UniProtKB/TrEMBL annotation:
GO terms for molecular function: cysteine-type endopeptidase inhibitor activity. Residues 140-152 have a biased composition (Gly residues). The keyword Transit peptide does not apply. It comes from the Eukaryota. This is Cystatin domain-containing protein. GO terms for cellular component: cytoplasm; extracellular space; vesicle. Residues 124-167 are annotated as: Disordered. SUPFAM superfamilies: Cystatin/monellin.
Amino acid sequence: SDKNKRSVCGWAAAVAAVHAADPVPGGWSSAKVDDPLTKMLTTALIKDANYAASVKTRVCVTKINSLEQQVVAGMNYLFSVSGCDVKASADSGMCSDSNKCATPKEWDIKVFSGIDNKTQIASIEPKGANSGGNNKPAGSGSGVMLGAGAPGSGSKNGTKPADGAHNPTRVEVMMTMTTKLMVLGAAALLTAASVTLADSPPGSWQHKDVNDEMWDVVVDALSSDAHYKAEVGAFRICVRDITSIDYQVVSGMNYKFHVRGCEVQNTDHAGRCRGDDANCAPESFVVAVYEQSWTQTLEVSEISRETTALAATTSAYATSGEVSDEEKALIDAWIVKAHRNKYGDDPDMYYTGGTPLFDESTGENIDLYTYIIEQHPDRPWQTVTAANLMATGPSTAATHSQSSFVSTVMYMGVMAVIGVAVVTFRARRGRYAYNAIDNHDT
């Protein structure tokens, strides 16, 4: 799952940050350019809101040549890239055929990623414009080496440091080791805590809450002919409600939108149901969408009518006219979770007379739960409940494997913390040096 991946990646990043060239916290170190970091950069570049006010330059990227990182209250990243000047943020990101220049220039792009996952472009400079091209804060370096011969210590090949140069003591060396152990111990314990909360294997399908962002994804995908794969053909629908969403992390994101909507004539009527289409008799569909944000790819790969065993087995019960207290509780919970109005409809739905529970043709009132079931014969509250039960009920083998991994990581964390205590005690004990007794005057 995303949480597992972030936990393991966070652990790996912590280990790498501690061991790469022996950097201390706040030092710069080399990092591997991977898909998530590439996505972070190219996604940040295309939005004006992500730029610091002082950054006026806009570039698109043809190649990322190298990457360095710095642990702060969040992360600083320094991307050394090849790319081209562009006029607007919308043309940034990865260079396309339309904005690729004949001779790309070398650029340093500094990006800050906060602990709240918000990203800011801190600077964009031509290669070599600042501090010899590294665009780092003065004196940061790529790491701090302790002892004789360290860059900047004033020593060479173990000779005495120059006057005024600082020669680290054994206490300082030990305290640096303590800092490393604290980082590793904290990372191990945080990883264990994260793994206990998320046990789905990478690449598995998981449930996602319905929100405005997900509405934008499915509506944008359905509203343009350019987004449909050839296999979909001319089949088009508009969406009244999203009952649930499943997603899968791949090289991008796969989504399965379980929706209530209607078949429409063409793409002009697709997307969110509106006008006369909003009054249609809805059916249940599954819309498969693939999204890769860093390449601005959005594809509708399949649209199918949804037929579930659950709908078939509950059809007889739906016509009985009786709703159990248990199902009423499920409906109430679904209304809150799916952000519906009190009648189980879209929050923007308007009714003649202010309520859908009065039948003007007969002059009779309709029971609330009977109305909701008539509007949602597939009973999405039961589907979502079943999906949640399956998601929270891993196999015994998976649970055992997870438990073993968590135990191992927690053991490593505890040992690291014990190591911190031992090193700190020894460092304090070795703080003061005493001359041998036989050196004192008698």
